Amino acid sequence: MSSLCSIERCTRTSRGLCDCCQQNLCLQHLNEHNALLTVQLNPLTDEINVLRDRLKTLNIQKTIADSRQKLEQWRQNCYKKIDYFFEQKCQELDQLVNEKVSQQREELNQIYLKIIELINAQEATRQDIDLLISTIRQLKTNMSKIERTCFTIDTRPLLIDDTLIFIKTTEHELDLSTLSPIYKTVHHSEESFRSLTSNNRYLLIHQYPNLCLFDREMNIVKQMLWSYDAIQDMCWSSTLDRFIVLGENNIFLINENTMLI
Ligand SMILES: [Zn+2]
Ligand SMILES: [Zn+2]
Fold first, then answer.
1. How many angstroms separate the alpha carbon of residue 9 from the centre of ligand 1?
2. Which ligand is nearest to the CA of 14?
């Protein structure tokens, strides 16, 4: 059954439900309401265009420059560690060769001086000659050994796993939620002293009654009974190559390899 347009004073027959006002309207009023809606489209396209412009002018490099800087710093630090390790091993190799060569040189010099001495004195016993011959024989053997020297270099590839670098998107740089997720939890009893410190290899923590070294996986690798002063503070000294533990009345140096104080 047909009814009238819902607009006041309109006498035309309603032709459909208007989408915007949920009223039954005639064709003319439906068109009017439709026109009112389409007019609202223009400001929306303007807003989209503003957003598109903002996206176009967004300086991505500036946004990520600081983070790239941190990644770059990490890379440089890693290179330095590799270079340092490489240099140490090269020196170790040189030292292995040099020790043998200099010992041989030293022995050759000594026997040479001995022979010159005998020549100058124009006097040599049968025993002198036999001794010289046997020493020279030994030096020849040593020389052959040095010439045949070769090294076995066993190397393992450097393992790089994804957890070395953790990247997370945050809205503000100082957002505390930028902290990495909990890596491992270590029980720390009431009686344990609070200070802790670390070097490149270990974390030093007092776990009553012991002083413990934890590795990167947070496993205790070394520990020793701590029966000294109450620990006030701890730090690592790369110059001394020791952990420094500040007690109430004493300062202790701890060797990470031997755990000796
Ligand atoms: Zn309407
Ligand atoms: Zn109408």
1. 16
2. 2
